Amino acid sequence: MGADIGVTGLAVMGANLARNLARNGYTVALHNRTSARTDALINSYSNEGTFVRTESLAELVESLERPRRVLIMVKAGAAVDAVIDELTGLLEEGDIVIDAGNSFYEETRRREAALAEKGLHFVGVGVSGGEEGALNGPSIMPGGSKKSYESLGPMLEKIAADYNGEPCCAWVGTDGAGHFVKMVHNGIEYADMQVIGEAFDLMRSLAGLEPAEQAGVFREWNTTDLASYLIEITSEVLEQEDELTGRPLVDVIVDAAGQKGTGRWTAISGLEVGSPVTTIAESVFARSISSQLGLREITNQVFPAGINEAVTAEELYGSGDARQDFVEDVRKALYASKLVSYAQGFDMLTAAAQEYGWELDMRTIASLWRAGCIIRADLLDTIMKAYEGSEEQPRNLLLAEEFTEAIAECLPAWRRVVAAAATYGVPAPVFSSSLAYYDSLRRDRLPASLTQGLRDYFGAHTYQRVDKPGTFHTRWSDDRTETEV
Ligand code: 6PG
């Protein structure tokens, strides 16, 4: 009997997925460019299940049951193409190639089309949950053909995270849909972390709450509607003391946030599908600014932070009830901003579904993120409710009954926090841009009419009128009368 699935690329994510599959009773053929990794895995974990050692892709393919399933877990980009190129010569019609890395969805679309011509299924699978999730149950977002899911789905569902008996894995849509959904997950992940960071900074700078004390605040918040994995681990990071200096670890970590690119892709793709994911994009920019260490140092010397302003702020928020009230305001600002990032993420999914002809089901997508993944949160249950029923889906999550009240309740606090941040010079780019998104959506008239007027003035770009159909131009450099064009 051949192996059920082959895994190539045995760095920690690949190795953990392979072990997860083996632990669930599948026979897993293993391959890595250097066999040392394959051997290390087999030596340490052969008691977990059945592994087949192979030394080349040809041998890997040879060892598999038909239709063959080969899971690639290599660095996104050229390495994926290199493995695919080698595999396609070895596989036969009906076989399935799975890319479980964080590949860009356009590349997945391209690869899927190319392999389909050869009669092969190419399945881009979004996998979230980090190393721990890959081993014990990640959230899995498969794309590719529906046909491929018949053979692959049961396996993936078995190794996925479980939420109240339901697997956090479901086919989300054709070709690159799985990677697209995972990309949006990561964009939301960026925003989730940024709003946590802004709350931390505001509570420290304006209310004098030190990291260890804030660990307690976040722990408390984790019992509210903010309950989520990222809030939970924030307490753990904040209470960690540095062994070397005895200072809070968060104070000795360089304040320059890295990124591998998925958040940036979300922002770019948001622009491409015409969905204004401002909160998500702002979170990406916040990381970029943090990384401009040299420029920040110079600017800090030219415009030093306003010490007097901070003193005033501490006087306002730094003790007793005022501090309590401020902390509660920050919690509400965080929650409202978080809602905006989810609303934008789902709006972008809706736009992409139209653009690429995917049958994305928003309720299902929310269900996949309830366990196993980095953004798992109680909020996702509420989002599922908002998308329940086939008719009357909310145009935007902020308009869902489940959230309109929450937004109204948070709004005064949200405005107070954004105002305080601006008054005392604490950057809160995502809190404020989320509020601006909300205010823009609800505004009856936006200054875009003036933009249109200006565009028409310098470039005859034309405009529409509010009172009659048609397209118009004012002869700005002539007699300034209007013509219909
Ligand atoms: C996950 C994570 C994981 C990884 C991302 C983000 O869902 O398990 O999103 O995929 O952490 O690559 O990484 P960056 O923050 O480095 O962009």
TrEMBL record:
Pfam families: 6PGD, NAD_binding_2. Keywords: Gluconate utilization, NADP, Oxidoreductase, Pentose shunt. It is an enzyme of class 1 (oxidoreductase). Pathway: Carbohydrate degradation; pentose phosphate pathway; D-ribulose 5-phosphate from D-glucose 6-phosphate (oxidative stage): step 3/3. Substrate binds at N102, S128, G129, G130, H185, N186, Y190, K260, R287, R455, H461. GO terms for biological process: D-gluconate metabolic process; pentose-phosphate shunt. InterPro entries: 6-PGluconate_DH-like_C_sf (IPR008927), 6PGD_dom2 (IPR013328), 6PGDH_C (IPR006114), 6PGDH_Gnd/GntZ (IPR006113), 6PGDH_NADP-bd (IPR006115), 6PGdom_BS (IPR006184), NAD(P)-bd_dom_sf (IPR036291), Pgluconate_DH (IPR006183). GO terms for molecular function: NADP binding; phosphogluconate dehydrogenase (decarboxylating) activity. The keyword Electron transport does not apply. Homodimer. Belongs to the 6-phosphogluconate dehydrogenase family. Catalyzes the oxidative decarboxylation of 6-phosphogluconate to ribulose 5-phosphate and CO(2), with concomitant reduction of NADP to NADPH. This is 6-phosphogluconate dehydrogenase, decarboxylating. It comes from Nesterenkonia sedimenti. The gene is gndA.
